[in-house]
Amino acid sequence: MSTNKGKDGEMRALRLLSHIVEAEENCDVTRHTNTNTADGGADLVLEHPQGLLPHLGNIADGEDINQPPDLSDAPRVKTRIDVKTTESKLGPDTVKKFAGDIRRNPDCDGHVLIGGTALSGQAEKDFKEIQEAQAEVGKTVVYIPNVGIDNLEQHYKALPDNSSQDEE
After folding, report:
1. Cβ-proximal residues to 126 (8 Å cutoff; 6+ apart), any chain
2. More confident residue, 166 or 140
3. What domain of life does the UniProt record list for this protein's source (predicted)?
């Protein structure tokens, strides 16, 4: 671990996304900027088939997902991922900034806020309003707390490693 808590959180999310990219078809991930550099609220961007984000949300929520949805014909979309490295609840100011960054990333159909133990009461109300407003314009907005990151890591690390299979 470095002394930069924000960078450590982003790298944990990047490792998780690497597992997802290896396991899911037609996915890729990019890290646009260094931590503490202006990034428009996009710590990481996941390019993926449309429809994958709800599947990842279900896994993060602890649902037992054995079979991923068939997204082979789905168009590719971008999802902005904003990582907050904290063991506290995220407050309304964090959610408000996250919402502002949605407008700054119009090329992203998905927007994910990751981190914290939960959203505070007011932050949760604000987040639901943002989700509903963005759904009306075809965007998916998801919050994944620290326990959701744990659930995703457990799920993707438990999958068989296909990288050692012989290519035909």
Report:
1. 92, 95, 96, 99
2. 140
3. Bacteria
| Boundaries of domain holding 27 | 5-158
State how far the alpha carbon of 51 is from the alpha carbons of 11, 55, 79, 139, 160, in Å.
25, 7, 11, 11, 23
What is the number of structural domains in the chain? Answer: 1
List the CATH number of the domain containing 139. 3.40.1350.10
Residue 36 in this model has a pLDDT that exceeds 60? no
Residue 80's SS3 state is strand
- Contact by Cβ (8 Å): 66, 159: no
What pLDDT was estimated at residue 112?
Answer: 96
* First-to-final CA distance of the chain: 40
Structure tokens at 50: 């449309």
Does the residue 122 lie in any domain?
yes
Q: How far apart (Å, rounded) are the C-alpha atoms in residues 158 and 32?
A: 28
